[in-house]
Amino acid sequence: MPRRLLLIAVIYFVYISTSAQEKKVSVKYISETITIDGNLNESVWEQVAPATDFWQYFPTDTIQAQNQTEIRFLYDDKKLYVGIKVNAIGNDYIVPSLRRDFRAGGSDNITLMFDTFNDGTNAFLFGSNPAGVLREALVSGGGTEIRGFTTSWDTKWVGETKQYDGYYICEWAIPFSAFKFREGETKWRFNSYQFDTQGNERNTWINIPQNQFIFNLGYMGDMVFEKPLGNSKSPISIIPYVNTFAGEDFENNEDTFDISFGGDAKFTIGNSLNLDATINPDFSNVEVDRQVTNLTRFEINLPERRQFFIENSDLFADFGDSRDANPFFSRRIGIARNADDETIQNDIIAGARLSGKLNNNLRIGLLNIQTATDASNEIGSNNNTVVALQHKLFSRSNISFLFVNRQNTSDEDFIIPDEEYNRVIGVDYNLANEDNSWTGKAYIHKSFTPEIKDDDYSTGVRLQYNSKSWRIRGSGVFIGNNFNSDLGFIRRTDIFKIDPQVEYLLFPKKGKINRHIFSFTPTIIWRPTEGYFNSDYTIESQWNAEFKNNANLSATLTNNYVFLFDEFDPTRSDGTPLPANTDYRYSSFGLRYQSDRRKEFSYTLQPTGGAFFNGHIVSVRGDVNYRIQPYFNLAMQARYDYIELPAPFATANLWLVGPRLDVTFNKSIFWATFIQYSSQQDNFSINSRLQWRFAPLSDLFLVYNDNYFTDTVFAPRVRSINLKVTYWLYL
Question: Exposed, middle or buried, 309 (CB in 10 Å: 0-12/13-18/19+)?
Fold first, then answer.
């Protein structure tokens, strides 16, 4: 009898688990008016069944949420209406900031994702918190990587939230023009996740295993429209700007005053294609980059923040190997090297981008940007073109084609022959099965550079298996010695690298720890032109513990081998470099602890110590965060590196300090000040930005920048102030 009961219980569990993955919610067509006020008092809301029965994702993924959420959908010819009731055990919500596009982690919020082409690859994301602050984002790559989550995307929609005793209600109106979809569609794939800080839960409508990201697009239900969707062609959007700039260059004793004009325009072709154009774009209001301490031999990859390059950016950027051989990196456009090999800004004259879906299976991207000649810095004008095609295969895989072309368009005398052009063509295959248990990539790219005829290929393969207890990856990449992409990010050439990884996930049934992760990652690099000489390896062994109170602790042992083909100063302090043709074996050990981000005061501490090349290193990194919600947030990031190498090589004390003050006066006025000091870069900087969103997606920015030398005397370097106004017009 007990065996029979056990069998019945197992069959029932399998049944409800299977059913949970086949959820549907109906979307009712209406003709009456919905007032967006956070009340849901129109009677039509009660006529539709909600999407409910949410599952826990954290601390476990095997039971339903303790505090349920209900989501209802209505629509008319122009808008999708969403009514959400989020239940909670009390009204002590965490709302760190009133700034739009907030981060979900460590706060209360509800998020919805819409896969409008039903391909499990891309989705539109909309969310709100209990204070009614909105956010929107794009999810790409099937939701398998953090880099596929883009919050820089903006679109026009409205929402209101009201708090009640034990729950809050969100009411949204999202224009269909904010989405891209096929006319006549009757079904979208849909999922929602909700963060409940009081109940210490993260919940999802579709049950998602913890070995996957909470925004994974392999786990979605269906929202079924009562009648087919029509044509939602967007109005033409014109976004002009006026920018007044005043600056002083103390090093060269030059003053600058300038008033510039420009803007963007957005057009929709059908329901699925975007055409974006820009003239004389200005990015002075974009958040300043974080300074970094670089102890490696290679360039640091910093994220794209410029709005023009964001939408459908995955279509252009997700080619090749993101770490070692990305053939298109949009930050290369608008940046150039002068005659002294210094990186400086290069003006963009104009550009256009066509991107989106031609049908349910084929995506297309075309980007063309023209940059200006800067004769004083010996920088020629260039036309930069990218063509990307992506065709869906099977359930969630795709094959993609890429063409990148940088063509010199000036006839200046300083342009040497090998700078005339650079081109890359390539094909990528991206694998993802229905539930993301198998993912992977294979690619081959070839570059074209004047007078280069061979060894100009890059190719790689990666295959990863994800299960409840195991994540296993096999991967490798080859980059030829002459492979080059002027518009890409290539850390180094002439390598054959393998970097497999094995991770074991353990979920204790009792205790304070929610999950252990044990990982082993060897990275081994050979130099093909040196007879496949082993030039580097790194073996990383790590234990990570995720606590039920949202804290995190990890310990990492790293073993390194490096052969230097060229001399190198690890401190980058103009000291005596380590000589070429020498090799080094060294090991280090590090700890990292992150406290509960739900608390008003939280912190991260990461000490590391051990050998470093032929010497020793002690590093301490950390950050502290204090908030007085929802108006005030003070964050401090700091890093200290003490490097001791034997004479005559350098010994260095490197500091990187970055306090940031963020004040949100209300949902329309924000002030952020970011101060950074880097002893390695000999720079102290202040970036202070006041933003007033006086109309939807229309802003006034007042931006102050100040930079100082710090090596011998504290002296001003450059100083500037910008007053910029942008206005979003619908025609």
Answer: buried
- Give the residue ranges of DSSP H helices in 217-332: 313-317
Q: In b/e form, how buried is each residue of 339-364, taking b as 16+ CB within 10 angstroms?
A: eeeeeeebbbbebbbbbbbeeeeebb
Spatial separation of the C-alpha atoms in residues 247 and 83, rounded to whole Å: 49
Other beta carbons within 10 Å of 450: 11
Cα 625 versus chain centre, distance: 21
- Location of structure tokens 């391909």: 119
Least confident among 17-21, 478-482, 502-506, 534-538: 17-21
DSSP 448-474: E-TT--SS-EEEEEEEEEE-SSEEEEE
Q: How far apart are CA 608 and CA 540, in angstroms?
A: 14
The string of pLDDT tens digits covering residues 671-709 is: 999 999 999 989 999 999 999 999 988 999 999 999 999
| Cα dist from 74 to 83, 96, 231, 580, whole Å | 8, 31, 17, 68
CA–CA distance, 457 with 494 (Å, rounded to integer): 10
pLDDT at 730 over 60: yes
Beta bridge partners of 182: none
Residues 6+ apart with CB under 8 A from 222: 23, 24, 25, 187, 188, 189, 190
CA geometry: angle 423, 425, 426, nearest 5 deg: 150
- Report in angstroms the alpha-carbon separations of 613 from 21, 207, 495, 584, 650: 52, 47, 21, 5, 12
Q: Write down the pTM of the prediction.
A: 0.90
Q: Band of the pLDDT at 13, cuts 50, 70, 90?
A: very low
- Tell me the C-alpha distance between 177 and 698, whole Å: 18
> SS3 for 482-503, per residue?
CCCCCCCEECCCCEEEECCEEE
* Length, in residues, of the chain: 731
Q: Give the Cα separation of 314 and 138 in Å (integer).
A: 10
Q: How far apart are CA 583 and CA 22, in angstroms?
A: 57
- How does pLDDT run across 43-96, given as a tens digit for each residue? 999 999 999 999 999 999 999 999 999 999 999 999 999 999 999 999 999 999
What pLDDT is recorded for position 268? 86
Kindly report the number of other CB atoms within 10 A of residue 62's CB atom: 12
10: pLDDT strictly greater than 50: no
- pLDDT at residue 233, as a whole number: 65
| Cα–Cα–Cα angle for 78, 356, 362, rounded to 5 degrees | 120
CA 238 from chain centre, in angstroms, equals: 26
Query: Are the C-beta atoms of 618 and 591 separated by less than 8 Å?
Result: no
Residue 266 CA to residue 237 CA, distance in Å, equals 5
Q: Write the DSSP symbol of residue 107.
A: S
> Assign residue 358 a region: left if phi > 0, alpha if psi is -120 to 50, beta otherwise?
alpha
Give the model's pLDDT for residue 479: 98
**Tokens at 670, concatenated:** 């924000």
Instruction: Please state, in angstroms and rounded to a whole number, the distance separating the CA atoms of residues 20 and 388.
Output: 37
Distance of CA 709 to the CA centre of its chain: 32
CA–CA separation, 643 and 601 (whole Å): 31
Count of CB atoms situated within 10 Å of the CB of 324: 21
Model confidence over 378-392: pLDDT tens digits?
999 999 999 999 999
> What integer best gives the mean pLDDT of the chain?
93
As a whole number, mean pLDDT of residues 595-623 equals 97
Closest CA to 27 of 225, 324, 236, 254: 225
Amino acid at 89: I
Residue with tokens 């039920």: 548
Residue 8 confidence (pLDDT): 41
DSSP run (H or E) holding 618:
strand 615-628
- β-pairing, 158-164 vs 69-75, is unpaired
* Number of C-beta neighbours around residue 529 at 10 A: 13
Does residue 619 contact residue 632 with C-beta atoms inside 8 Å? no
